[in-house]
Amino acid sequence: MSATYLESLFSLRGRVALVSGASRGIGMAIARGLEKAGASVVGIGSSAAPAEAPTGNLSYERCDVVDNAGFRSLCEMLHRKHDGLHIYFHAAAISLTDGASTDADDNFDRTIDTNLKAAYHCCRTVSAYMERSGGGSIINVTSIGAVQGFPGNPGYVASKGGLRLLTKALALDLADKNIRVNNLAPGYIHTAMTDKSFKDPQRHQERLARMMIKRWGTPDDLIGAAIFLASEASAYVTGQDIFVDGGWTAKGL
To answer: Could you read off the pLDDT of 23-79 as tens digits, one per residue?
Structure first.
Protein backbone atom coordinates (compact mmCIF):
# COMPACT_ATOMS: atom_id res chain seq x y z
CA MET A 1 0.00 0.00 0.00
CA SER A 2 1.55 3.28 -1.09
CA ALA A 3 1.87 6.42 0.97
CA THR A 4 0.03 8.26 -1.81
CA TYR A 5 -3.01 6.01 -1.38
CA LEU A 6 -3.09 6.55 2.38
CA GLU A 7 -2.69 10.28 1.82
CA SER A 8 -5.71 10.31 -0.48
CA LEU A 9 -7.80 8.54 2.15
CA PHE A 10 -6.82 10.28 5.36
CA SER A 11 -5.19 13.60 4.49
CA LEU A 12 -6.96 16.75 5.66
CA ARG A 13 -4.81 19.03 3.55
CA GLY A 14 -6.80 22.01 2.32
CA ARG A 15 -9.49 21.48 4.95
CA VAL A 16 -10.50 23.98 7.63
CA ALA A 17 -11.50 22.59 11.01
CA LEU A 18 -13.09 24.05 14.11
CA VAL A 19 -12.77 22.20 17.43
CA SER A 20 -14.64 23.26 20.56
CA GLY A 21 -13.46 22.31 24.03
CA ALA A 22 -9.90 22.62 22.74
CA SER A 23 -8.30 24.33 25.72
CA ARG A 24 -7.27 20.97 27.19
CA GLY A 25 -7.88 17.23 27.22
CA ILE A 26 -9.72 15.46 24.41
CA GLY A 27 -10.50 18.62 22.44
CA MET A 28 -6.89 19.74 22.48
CA ALA A 29 -5.63 16.31 21.38
CA ILE A 30 -8.11 16.20 18.51
CA ALA A 31 -7.21 19.72 17.40
CA ARG A 32 -3.50 18.85 17.37
CA GLY A 33 -4.17 15.60 15.52
CA LEU A 34 -6.21 17.28 12.79
CA GLU A 35 -3.48 19.87 12.32
CA LYS A 36 -0.84 17.16 11.94
CA ALA A 37 -3.08 15.49 9.33
CA GLY A 38 -2.91 18.68 7.26
CA ALA A 39 -5.93 20.76 8.30
CA SER A 40 -5.94 24.41 9.25
CA VAL A 41 -7.45 24.22 12.72
CA VAL A 42 -9.00 26.73 15.08
CA GLY A 43 -9.55 25.47 18.60
CA ILE A 44 -11.98 27.27 20.87
CA GLY A 45 -12.77 27.13 24.57
CA SER A 46 -14.15 29.17 27.42
CA SER A 47 -10.66 29.56 28.92
CA ALA A 48 -8.64 32.65 28.07
CA ALA A 49 -5.78 30.48 26.80
CA PRO A 50 -5.20 26.75 26.18
CA ALA A 51 -3.15 24.60 28.53
CA GLU A 52 -0.47 24.32 25.84
CA ALA A 53 0.45 26.97 23.28
CA PRO A 54 -0.77 26.14 19.74
CA THR A 55 1.77 25.61 16.96
CA GLY A 56 1.81 25.28 13.19
CA ASN A 57 -1.58 25.70 11.52
CA LEU A 58 -3.39 25.47 14.85
CA SER A 59 -4.68 28.62 16.53
CA TYR A 60 -6.89 29.25 19.55
CA GLU A 61 -9.77 31.63 20.12
CA ARG A 62 -11.73 32.21 23.30
CA CYS A 63 -15.38 31.39 22.66
CA ASP A 64 -17.95 29.74 24.92
CA VAL A 65 -20.26 27.39 23.01
CA VAL A 66 -23.27 28.58 25.02
CA ASP A 67 -22.78 32.04 23.48
CA ASN A 68 -24.73 31.52 20.24
CA ALA A 69 -23.99 34.97 18.83
CA GLY A 70 -20.30 34.73 19.65
CA PHE A 71 -20.03 31.29 18.06
CA ARG A 72 -21.79 32.50 14.91
CA SER A 73 -19.44 35.48 14.64
CA LEU A 74 -16.44 33.20 15.00
CA CYS A 75 -17.71 30.88 12.24
CA GLU A 76 -18.23 33.88 9.97
CA MET A 77 -14.72 35.10 10.65
CA LEU A 78 -13.26 31.66 10.07
CA HIS A 79 -15.13 31.13 6.80
CA ARG A 80 -14.17 34.57 5.53
CA LYS A 81 -10.50 34.14 6.46
CA HIS A 82 -10.08 30.65 5.00
CA ASP A 83 -12.81 30.75 2.34
CA GLY A 84 -14.33 27.58 3.76
CA LEU A 85 -15.25 25.53 6.80
CA HIS A 86 -15.23 21.75 6.41
CA ILE A 87 -14.87 20.01 9.79
CA TYR A 88 -16.44 20.65 13.17
CA PHE A 89 -15.72 18.69 16.36
CA HIS A 90 -18.00 19.44 19.29
CA ALA A 91 -15.88 18.33 22.23
CA ALA A 92 -16.99 21.01 24.70
CA ALA A 93 -18.70 19.54 27.76
CA ILE A 94 -19.08 19.84 31.50
CA SER A 95 -19.63 17.18 34.17
CA LEU A 96 -21.28 18.29 37.42
CA THR A 97 -21.71 15.42 39.83
CA ASP A 98 -24.45 15.68 42.44
CA GLY A 99 -23.41 16.08 46.06
CA ALA A 100 -24.55 17.45 49.38
CA SER A 101 -23.04 20.85 48.62
CA THR A 102 -24.52 21.21 45.13
CA ASP A 103 -27.95 21.97 43.72
CA ALA A 104 -28.99 18.91 41.71
CA ASP A 105 -31.56 20.82 39.63
CA ASP A 106 -29.06 23.55 38.77
CA ASN A 107 -26.43 20.95 37.86
CA PHE A 108 -28.88 19.22 35.53
CA ASP A 109 -29.98 22.42 33.80
CA ARG A 110 -26.43 23.73 33.32
CA THR A 111 -25.26 20.39 31.96
CA ILE A 112 -28.11 20.13 29.45
CA ASP A 113 -27.52 23.74 28.36
CA THR A 114 -23.81 23.16 27.71
CA ASN A 115 -23.65 19.57 26.53
CA LEU A 116 -26.87 19.29 24.51
CA LYS A 117 -28.54 22.61 23.70
CA ALA A 118 -25.27 24.35 22.83
CA ALA A 119 -24.26 21.37 20.67
CA TYR A 120 -27.52 21.70 18.73
CA HIS A 121 -27.05 25.41 18.11
CA CYS A 122 -23.38 24.98 17.18
CA CYS A 123 -24.17 22.21 14.71
CA ARG A 124 -26.96 24.25 13.14
CA THR A 125 -24.72 27.28 12.82
CA VAL A 126 -21.67 25.50 11.47
CA SER A 127 -23.73 23.49 8.97
CA ALA A 128 -24.71 26.70 7.16
CA TYR A 129 -21.05 27.53 6.58
CA MET A 130 -20.27 23.95 5.56
CA GLU A 131 -23.06 24.12 2.98
CA ARG A 132 -21.42 27.23 1.52
CA SER A 133 -18.15 25.28 1.45
CA GLY A 134 -19.62 22.37 -0.51
CA GLY A 135 -20.20 20.05 2.44
CA GLY A 136 -18.33 18.78 5.46
CA SER A 137 -18.15 16.55 8.50
CA ILE A 138 -19.57 17.24 11.96
CA ILE A 139 -18.38 15.02 14.82
CA ASN A 140 -19.97 15.21 18.24
CA VAL A 141 -17.99 13.80 21.15
CA THR A 142 -20.41 11.76 23.23
CA SER A 143 -19.47 9.09 25.80
CA ILE A 144 -20.09 5.55 26.94
CA GLY A 145 -22.52 7.43 29.20
CA ALA A 146 -24.67 7.97 26.10
CA VAL A 147 -25.68 4.31 26.13
CA GLN A 148 -25.22 3.23 29.75
CA GLY A 149 -26.31 4.50 33.15
CA PHE A 150 -23.77 5.98 35.57
CA PRO A 151 -24.47 7.10 39.16
CA GLY A 152 -24.64 10.60 40.60
CA ASN A 153 -24.57 12.50 37.32
CA PRO A 154 -27.95 12.27 35.57
CA GLY A 155 -27.45 15.50 33.64
CA TYR A 156 -24.29 14.20 31.98
CA VAL A 157 -25.87 10.88 31.03
CA ALA A 158 -29.03 12.56 29.75
CA SER A 159 -27.10 15.17 27.77
CA LYS A 160 -24.81 12.64 26.12
CA GLY A 161 -27.68 10.28 25.36
CA GLY A 162 -29.60 13.17 23.84
CA LEU A 163 -26.58 14.26 21.83
CA ARG A 164 -26.17 10.73 20.48
CA LEU A 165 -29.66 10.76 18.97
CA LEU A 166 -29.44 14.42 17.98
CA THR A 167 -26.49 13.41 15.81
CA LYS A 168 -28.58 10.78 14.06
CA ALA A 169 -31.39 13.27 13.43
CA LEU A 170 -28.96 15.87 12.05
CA ALA A 171 -27.27 13.25 9.87
CA LEU A 172 -30.61 12.72 8.16
CA ASP A 173 -31.52 16.40 7.94
CA LEU A 174 -28.12 17.45 6.56
CA ALA A 175 -27.42 14.56 4.20
CA ASP A 176 -28.76 16.40 1.17
CA LYS A 177 -26.31 19.23 1.90
CA ASN A 178 -23.36 16.81 1.68
CA ILE A 179 -22.75 17.09 5.42
CA ARG A 180 -22.04 13.96 7.42
CA VAL A 181 -22.71 13.85 11.18
CA ASN A 182 -21.25 11.19 13.47
CA ASN A 183 -20.46 10.51 17.12
CA LEU A 184 -17.07 9.81 18.63
CA ALA A 185 -17.73 8.09 21.97
CA PRO A 186 -14.81 7.86 24.41
CA GLY A 187 -14.62 5.50 27.33
CA TYR A 188 -12.67 6.38 30.47
CA ILE A 189 -9.97 8.75 29.25
CA HIS A 190 -7.56 10.25 31.78
CA THR A 191 -8.19 14.00 31.63
CA ALA A 192 -8.77 16.75 34.16
CA MET A 193 -12.46 15.74 34.18
CA THR A 194 -11.67 12.16 35.26
CA ASP A 195 -8.53 12.82 37.29
CA LYS A 196 -10.23 12.35 40.66
CA SER A 197 -11.40 8.84 39.75
CA PHE A 198 -8.08 8.03 38.10
CA LYS A 199 -6.16 8.83 41.30
CA ASP A 200 -8.55 7.00 43.62
CA PRO A 201 -7.24 3.40 43.85
CA GLN A 202 -10.67 1.80 44.30
CA ARG A 203 -12.41 3.79 41.55
CA HIS A 204 -9.44 3.33 39.24
CA GLN A 205 -9.61 -0.46 39.58
CA GLU A 206 -13.41 -0.60 39.34
CA ARG A 207 -13.26 1.16 36.00
CA LEU A 208 -10.27 -0.83 34.81
CA ALA A 209 -12.18 -4.07 35.47
CA ARG A 210 -14.79 -3.01 32.89
CA MET A 211 -12.23 -2.64 30.10
CA MET A 212 -10.93 -5.36 27.78
CA ILE A 213 -7.75 -3.38 27.13
CA LYS A 214 -6.39 -3.10 30.65
CA ARG A 215 -5.47 0.55 30.83
CA TRP A 216 -7.26 3.86 30.95
CA GLY A 217 -7.31 5.71 27.65
CA THR A 218 -5.41 8.88 26.86
CA PRO A 219 -6.65 11.78 24.73
CA ASP A 220 -4.23 10.71 21.99
CA ASP A 221 -6.08 7.39 21.70
CA LEU A 222 -8.93 9.31 20.04
CA ILE A 223 -6.88 10.95 17.29
CA GLY A 224 -7.01 8.06 14.80
CA ALA A 225 -10.80 7.79 14.94
CA ALA A 226 -11.08 11.58 14.78
CA ILE A 227 -9.04 11.76 11.57
CA PHE A 228 -11.05 8.88 10.10
CA LEU A 229 -14.37 10.63 10.74
CA ALA A 230 -13.08 13.97 9.44
CA SER A 231 -11.50 12.57 6.28
CA GLU A 232 -12.62 11.03 3.01
CA ALA A 233 -11.85 7.62 4.51
CA SER A 234 -15.32 7.82 6.10
CA ALA A 235 -17.09 9.30 3.07
CA TYR A 236 -19.93 6.73 3.33
CA VAL A 237 -20.28 6.93 7.12
CA THR A 238 -22.95 9.09 8.73
CA GLY A 239 -25.24 8.87 11.75
CA GLN A 240 -22.92 6.40 13.46
CA ASP A 241 -21.33 5.90 16.88
CA ILE A 242 -17.60 5.15 16.94
CA PHE A 243 -16.69 3.88 20.41
CA VAL A 244 -13.10 4.28 21.59
CA ASP A 245 -13.48 2.71 25.01
CA GLY A 246 -11.00 -0.13 25.42
CA GLY A 247 -13.86 -2.58 24.89
CA TRP A 248 -16.00 -1.25 27.77
CA THR A 249 -19.37 -1.29 25.98
CA ALA A 250 -18.72 -4.68 24.35
CA LYS A 251 -17.66 -6.52 27.49
CA GLY A 252 -19.97 -8.95 29.25
CA LEU A 253 -18.46 -10.94 32.10
So the answer is: 999 999 999 999 999 999 999 999 988 888 888 999 999 999 999 999 999 999 999
| Domain boundaries defined on the chain | 3-250
> Which residues are marked as active site?
156
- The architecture (CATH level 2) of 3-250 comes to 3-Layer(aba) Sandwich (3.40)
Give the pTM.
Answer: 0.94
**What string of H, E and C letters represents the secondary structure of the chain?**
CCHHHHHHHHCCCCCEEEEECCCCHHHHHHHHHHHHCCCEEEEEECCCCCCCCCCCCEEEEECCCCCHHHHHHHHHHHHHHHCCCCEEEECCCCCCCCCCCCCHHHHHHHHHHHHHHHHHHHHHHHHHHHHHCCCEEEEEECCHHHCCCCCCCHHHHHHHHHHHHHHHHHHHHHHHHCEEEEEEEECCECCCCCHHHHHCHHHHHHHHCCCCCCCCECHHHHHHHHHHHHCHHHCCCCCCEEEECCCHHHCCC
